[in-house]
Amino acid sequence: MRRIRVRDIMPRKMVTISAGDTLATVEDIMTLGHVRHMPVVHGGKLVGVVSERDLLRASLSNLTNFGSEQRRAFLQAVEIKRVMSAPPIIIHPDATPEEAALVMAEKKIGCLPVVEDEELIGLVTETDVLRYFAGVRGAL
Fold first, then answer.
1. pLDDT band at 62 (very low <50, low <70, confident <90, very high)
2. Contact (Cβ atoms closer than 8 angstroms) between residue 8 and residue 140
3. Cβ contact 93:7 at 8 Å
4. Sequence-ordered alpha helix ranges (H) in the chain
């Protein structure tokens, strides 16, 4: 029996963002696309990951006493590269879901960019791993 690998449980589609894009752009994409993590690329290469947690941390640390207009202006002025997690912690597509779960638990992160031959090919999230362990058919 063939062993399940990260490549088998990761979604086939992913959304990436450029390191020069703003927090406002990321917030809009995350909200509209129901996405919680996005790989950040620069010149076609993976340079980091931005998450809802990164957006929240940036907003809370700078905007506690501002209204919605000031908050939006702040988010439009700050580039992703200032708040993203870098360098990204990555995983190979041939790693097992168990290995991915262990890395995410040890590093306290919610996703791992999947990289093969220095190319970003996907993103596996804690939700993907949980679905696999729960035996949810859509995970495979």
1. low
2. yes
3. yes
4. 6-9, 23-33, 52-63, 68-77, 97-107, 126-134
